[in-house]
Amino acid sequence: MPMHLTSGWRHISQTTPSVDSLMMVLCIVKVRQKRQALSRRFESCGLELHPTKTKVVYCKDSNRKEKEDVTNFTFLGYTFHPRKAKGWKGAEFTSFLPAISQEAQKRIRQEIRKWKLKLHHIGLEEIAKEYNPIIQGWLNYYGKNGRKILRKVLEYINLHLVLWTKGKFKKLKRKKMRAINFLERITSVA
User: Got the DSSP string for 65-90?
Assistant: First the structure.
């Protein structure tokens, strides 16, 4: 965030990589004061807060059980909202955690549909060489939080590989389970 926006705001990093800013406030009474102060600060710089994107989000978890209108938000491809979590002793509780957003999942699925997996003359090595770096990037970015939800997107990749296998090998054309077993054998060897 530029220096002129952060003066007087010690808790906001000057190296924030995004123009969007997040502010977590523990006391609901201070929320309105902080929002008004932030609005005045932006106005003094010739900027304004976006009326629909700027909202106060209640970070609901096991300790905060009040009912509020807005309990989630999406930021940089992650949706933050109350999710079930397990403690180190195995006890379940609710925590305010991020996971891949619906929009990001949709974009990834659209990207997978654009891949050349319908071309059956391409070998599995060529597919792996071309798409593994992309998949690894998704895993690195979205895999840190909410792996369970990301797994559903990765299963979509497996589905397309099964379809490729059924088209590539005539013996597997109408045999989905054999195609899945074939891919599992290949990946266990590699």
Answer: ----S---EEETTEEEEEEEEE-TTS
